[in-house]
Write a structure and sequence with these properties.
The protein is mainly α. The chain is built from four helices and no strands.
Length: about 140
């Protein structure tokens, strides 16, 4: 009987651990970009998030200059939300035919995240700070 109880306890532990993984227990939202806060005027802008927007925008600006020969200026990567960062986001939104509101939500976040493999993308540093669609 003692061996049977041990096997049952071991199975119960495996079932509990599996259930915890399936429900996301212990997985915080730091890796969940769909839960990242919007970035822009009127939002509590996280400095890391703003820096990511600025950095990824500069990747976009460089691509515009190199590939299409547009005079797209860089912006300061100072982690402070301001009129130049908002204008940069609006320009990016116009390029991707998004609503030009200067706010980084899931659609604009997707546009930014897929620009740079070093900081963007699902495994990049900025993924946790930039909102993106739930399917990404």
């Amino acid at each position: 009987m003692n061996g049977t109880l041990k096997r049952l306890a071991a199975k119960a532990g495996v079932v509990t651990a599996t259930a915890a993984l399936l429900t996301g227990v212990g997985l915080g939202t730091a890796n969940a970009s769909p839960n990242a806060a919007y970035i822009g005027d009127g939002y509590a802008n996280n400095a890391h998030a703003v820096w990511c927007v600025q950095h990824l925008y500069n990747v976009f600006a460089k691509e515009q200059r190199d590939r299409y020969h547009y005079a797209t200026p860089d912006i300061a990567e100072d982690a402070a939300w301001g009129p130049r960062t908002k204008a940069a986001v609006t320009l990016l939104q116009s390029w991707y035919s998004e609503t030009q509101d200067g706010i980084v939500g899931p659609n604009t976040g997707w546009d930014l995240l897929h620009l740079d493999s070093g900081y963007g993308g699902k495994g990049g540093y900025c993924y946790q700070y930039i909102p993106s669609p739930s399917w990404y």
